[in-house]
């Protein structure tokens, strides 16, 4: 629905969630995850 591979999204979220500060948890929903990934790839 969000044009995101659910397995890739879940694997990435589970790998990063432990080290991610609480203030950045809003980056993890699938509708924002792809945008965050694209920003990091461009930067």
Which features characterize this protein?
mainly alpha; 2 helices; single chain; 43 residues
Structure in words:
This protein has helices at residues 6-16, 30-42. With 43 residues, it is an all-alpha fold. The protein has one domain (6-42). The longest helix has 13 residues, at 30-42. It starts with 5 loop residues before the first helix and ends with a helix.
Annotate the secondary structure layout:
Elements: H1 6-16, H2 30-42
Task: Tell me, rounded to a whole number, the average pLDDT.
Answer: 81
Number of strands: 0
Helix-strand sequence: HH
The Rg value, from CA coordinates, equals 10 Å
Shape: flat
Return the structural class: mainly alpha
The biggest sheet, with number of strands, parallel, antiparallel or mixed sense and barrel status, is: none
Q: Distance between termini?
A: 26 Å
Helix residue percentage: 55-70%
Total tally of structural domains: 1
In terms of per-residue confidence, which ranges show pLDDT below 50 for 5 or more consecutive residues? none
| Tally of helical runs | 2
Q: How much of the residues is beta strand, in percent? A: under 5%
């Amino acid at each position: 629905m969000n044009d995101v591979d659910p397995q890739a999204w879940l694997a990435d979220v589970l790998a990063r969630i432990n080290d991610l500060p609480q203030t950045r948890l809003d980056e993890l929903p699938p509708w924002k995850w792809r945008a965050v990934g694209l920003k990091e790839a461009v930067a």
